[in-house]
Design brief:
Layout (H helix, E strand, L loop, with lengths): L14 H6 L8 E3 L4 H14 L5 E5 L5 H7 L3 E4 H16 L4 H7 L5 H7 L14 H8 L17
Parallel strand pairs: 1-2, 2-3
């Protein structure tokens, strides 16, 4: 308020609060609650007002990903996974991988791509079109990365 910006206090899961903050004019909605059940209520309330606006949701992890998507979230961004992607990106850059490959491998195109890219979930295709073995091939010839795969041997 001191900076002259409007501030509204209220429960964002209440349709009336969303209306009062301009949800009907929004071009995009971002939900950043660390509590997934609260975020879920906000997504549902927003979707009851508008189905045409993109709704991006930040969550601590992907344990509620499908539920948030079913409620109408356009994208779900799990913090833990995004942090892991950032760490892997920095590693690849330090190992002199081409920037174009780092960007391609670290940019799943959708929240379902993020889930698929998690090696702990399955060795399915990720956002870069490579599974865990593909990433191993990416790093296989780099002796300094050997330790990263000691507990999970590369296939192929």
């Amino acid at each position: 308020r001191q900076a002259g910006d409007p501030v509204v206090f209220g429960d964002a899961a209440q349709v009336e609060v969303l209306r009062s903050v301009g949800a009907m004019r929004a071009s995009c909605v971002v939900v950043t609650f660390a509590n997934p059940p609260v975020a879920l209520r906000v997504v549902r309330a927003m979707r009851s007002l508008r189905t045409d606006v993109p709704v991006l949701v930040r969550t601590p992890d992907d344990s509620h990903l499908e539920e948030l998507q079913a409620a109408g979230a356009t994208e779900v961004v799990p913090e833990t996974f995004e942090a892991s992607l950032m760490l892997a990106s920095h590693l690849l850059l330090l190992l002199k991988e081409p920037v174009s490959r780092v960007v391609r491998c670290a940019t799943p195109s959708t929240s379902s791509g993020r889930r698929a890219a998690r090696p702990a979930v399955a060795h399915r295709r990720g956002g870069c079109g490579e599974d865990l073995d593909g990433l191993c091939r990416c790093w296989r010839d780099r002796p300094s990365c050997d330790v990263a795969f000691r507990d999970r041997p590369c296939g192929g």
